[in-house]
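User: Show me a protein chain along with its predicted structure.
Assistant: Here is one chain, sequence first, then structure tokens.
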Amino acid sequence: MAYLLFPGRHHLLTNFQLQELNFITQWDISTFKDVHGKNIKIKEPIDTIIWVITSANHSNTRRNPIPGYRREAMIEDFGRDIDAKSFVYHIDDIWVSPRFAHYVISKIEVDSNGKHILTPENTILGCSTPEVIDMYEKLWFQTLPFELENIEKRTFKAELPWDMVENIIDCNKKWTNRQKDTKYLQKVSRASRKMYEKYDFWDLIINLHNDPLLWNDGDITETRDYNTYVRAFDNWAKRKYEIIKNTVKPGRIVDIGCCTGSLIRELTLDERFRESDFYGIEVARKLYNECLHRKAQWHFANENVFFYQRNVATSNIFPSNNIDTFTTFSLTHEIMSYQKEKTLTNFISLIYDQLKFGWRWINVDVVGPENKDEIVYMKLNTSDWINENYDRIFDKNEQDKFREYLDSLSTYSRFLRFAQDFRFEENELIKYKIEDIEGSKYIKLKMQDACEFLSKKDYTDNWYSEMHETFCFWSFSDWQKTLKKHNFKILKESHDFTNPWIVENRFEWKVEFFKKNGNKLESLDYPVTNMVIVVEK
């Protein structure tokens, strides 16, 4: 028995691959050339193909749109047209590792219970990716090049499967007649066409590539430290539950932006909701994976808990008039920050459409002040740490050093850093002046900009990420007006407030607020920080 090891993400199988695989399994393998033009040296004819699906645990992202089990089904169907046995093995994503090839070989041996032990003596690698070829060559495997024409020049004699996906997307974003497209029929295998049409995978992939919120692997930003978010959500889960427990209606309960499902867990522990179904929607892949992990560990006190990885701001997840309660915590400001006001108002419309009549949405988030344009004066502490080098430059891979540096800045210097970084890439920098009044420095600026600083200054773990986000775009009355325009009824439980914990731990002894009355400065109370807004359809 001799093997062809054929690794890849395998989201699309091509007719070129089918042709090559049939050549390899039907002809004398010793007549073939490897990627360096040398004759293949193997004693037995190839009679078994070992398919390796990499990133098999990833789905619903630009880079990995199709779940592993669907990819396996497509391979099994594809293999019926090849005169060789096929075995499929799933390899979860392990990020970048120089020992990846060794890991794959070892996992196949374990998963096959020792049936398939792949060695350079009995196995040829089939691959067109130079980096992957290099890893296997270090283990002395020979490689058949498939689409690869010249490994040194990195030229290809046939279109790569994933390039084919991206080219079809670019050329056919409104493609409705694939079945009659000659290029599509010639290049894409029957098995892939069948699977894609049956499960609408083209629409899925096009939507994922058009999604403005997600990066390739299904994350919101490249700089976010999700460990910080998980700890914060878990630590505050009970408090969040206390805020909403008397306003949630039983039935179909959906928590959008559920992080790791910590709020859902608290709701499942409440006997009032024992007959309810719970749905957690999370767009970030790492958090979604943790939701699935926790469910597998019986973390929730109700078996009817389901998780989905979706960007809910662009289209409905559930049918119209279907949901009893939506909850959102710290979500709407992210939609506004990354997808602008039009997307946020569209999201509100989608929530309205999916709710049953007379049922509700509970939105808990940060909020802006009512007097957003009022000019205020901030007196910031200059003695709570250092005041030098507020504009020091760091590489984005120096997160730990950067956090330590931010933590070392005084409140005053941290504001200067904030003013330099906040919404810089969005070209929405704040405006301020420094005035010397009676021997003290005051920051003169709009109330909205002051509140943005107050809401961000302590997020040193995720500074780069937070600098993209606006918290104070709408006041509580702005929210009310917008929701009423969408035909929501505002319930009496709705209110904005100044979080006392934030005041005590983040504002006092750090920041003082003033307004000018003539030539005198008058002290101001700290502004609102958060809101709970409960609405019914």
